Amino acid sequence: MELNKYELLNRSYSFVSFDNSSLTIAVKNLEDKTVNVITLDNVKNVIGDVNITNKMITKCETDDNGNKILDLIIDNQSLKMEYTNYSICSIKVFENYIALYEDELIEMSGEWEKEFSTFGYLKNEAKDLENQRLIIAMDCNTGKPVGYLYGHKYKTINASATIPKNSCVFELEEIFVKKDYRCKGIGTLMFNAIEEKIKKEGISYITLTTATKDYKKIFHFYVEELGMTFWHARLFKDLNNEENKWLHFIFRIYW
Q1: Domain spans of the chain?
Q2: Which terminus of the chain has fewer Cβ atoms in its 10 Å neighbourhood, N or C?
Q3: What is the DSSP string of 46-63?
Q4: DSSP single-letter state for residue 128
Q5: Burial class (CB in 10 A: 0-12, 13-18, 19+), 129
Q6: How many Å apart are CA 69 and CA 48, to the nearest integer?
Q7: 219 to 10, 20, 147, 150, 160: CA distances (angstroms)
Q8: pLDDT of 168-197, one tens digit each?
Q9: CA–CA separation, 137 vs 139, rounded Å?
């Protein structure tokens, strides 16, 4: 399958991430909601600036010298680069299916716990998934889940500093993507999927609380990429640990 033909057939939503010598492109087919995640290896000789929004793939081809060339249109400006190889992973988002994929969801939760990336995080049990609204990201090539999002809705009894009384709110409990599938737009895809659905149900806010250790990365994801708003934070400093030079914190954000 030619990359340019594959790409052009599915161009309707795009996500581009450029890191060192690799380029990741996610393109969503609006008809079947499949996202095709394409990774280009050993990218070099980049002409243009990749840190601009509104990217569109126009052509991927091999020149007379055997070099593979990717041609993008970025804000009406052309971006060209060479690459040596590419891989394609197709992702699709499903809602619910808790019972069908319960073992896989608990296994991914165990991976999260072993990463030690979140203060106090423990692997889920089956009871933790009960009565939750679930979104699953599936690798269409392998048929296996590679990420999940779950939460629940409620109505506020009292007003807060940010949310009025009697508001319908979705509390996002967890969002996780397996390591090999990160930085490909899958977390954003799941978040957008739940946002689209709950808006139709009259829910006005999304809130979440995180105890992540890498607060800079989580701020970038939730605030800069997803457009959420910082609410408040609870910080601590370990005075018994002289090597601890950073303040850790737990913060709450809302949409």
Answers
A1: 3-89, 96-254
A2: N
A3: EES-SS-SSEEEEEEEE-
A4: G
A5: buried
A6: 14
A7: 31, 22, 20, 19, 22
A8: 999 999 999 999 888 777 888 888 888 988
A9: 7
Classified by CATH at the fold level, domain 96-254 comes out as Aminopeptidase (3.40.630)
Distances (CA, A) of 214 to 18, 52, 102, 202, 219: 21, 25, 28, 33, 9
Looking at residue 249, its amino acid is: F
The span from the CA of 225 to the CA of 218, in Å, is: 10
Q: Structure tokens of 96?
A: 């619910």
Which of 111, 99, 83, 253 lies closest to 182 in space, CA to CA? 111
Return the beta strands (E) in 185-247 as ranges. Answer: 205-210, 229-236
Q: What is the pLDDT of residues 228-244, one digit of tens each?
A: 999 888 888 888 876 55
